[in-house]
């Protein structure tokens, strides 16, 4: 999914926790400006305060504890998900007109980006048919299971993407128990730290940046929208 002209993508990182409504407003405004040709592409890394979001396929029954955290409707694909401190959210605002207008290839590129970033920490991220996101297989004496470590949920408008991915670095995993994450009742959720890897957010960001450049092309530092 490289750009034909190899123009660099802006790479912005917000410090502190960004409120979800403010982030969505800024993201949609930037996506509209990209479509109009008045702004460049942008990857925006941030953390949110604890909250749940519902995608376009969300089922009301999957919201187990509706009063636990604020709940926001989202225009992205997918079902319910959790965002909160310790989870790296990357909002992906790319112009697919410049990248082939292939939605399947775009989603595959996002998956490849996450998997390559995980490999920097010797974590094998895997895909599963019928299950969105990136998974890790965990094994012990007489047991094995698959846990989700990263989620994807994107939307396109005028061939510009927004929303994006989330990677669990060190979130409070109990916070996921208020929902059925992405509609998956038979599988759990994990993080890099839960896997026994003392990865910092800065280290995760560095891995994401290096892997992004492999898949999507060069980046350059940019200011966060909020």
Provide a quick synopsis of the model.
The chain is α/β, with parallel strands linked by helices and 226 residues long.
Category from helices, strands and their pairing: alpha/beta
Major sheet: 9 strands, mixed
Proportion in β-strands: 25-35%
Terminal Cα separation, in Å? 27 Å
The general outline is: globular
Q: How many strand elements? A: 12
**Helix count from the secondary structure assignment:** 3
pLDDT < 50 stretches: none
What's the SSE pattern? EHEEEEEHEEEEEHE
Helix content: 10-25%
Oligomer: single chain
Radius of gyration: 17 Å
Mean pLDDT: 94
Characterize the structure shown.
It is a single chain. With 226 residues, this protein is an alpha/beta fold. Helices cover 22% and strands 33% of the residues. The strands form two sheets. Strands 1, 2, 6, 7, 8, 9, 10, 11 and 12 form a nine-stranded mixed sheet that branches. It is globular, with a radius of gyration of 17 Å.
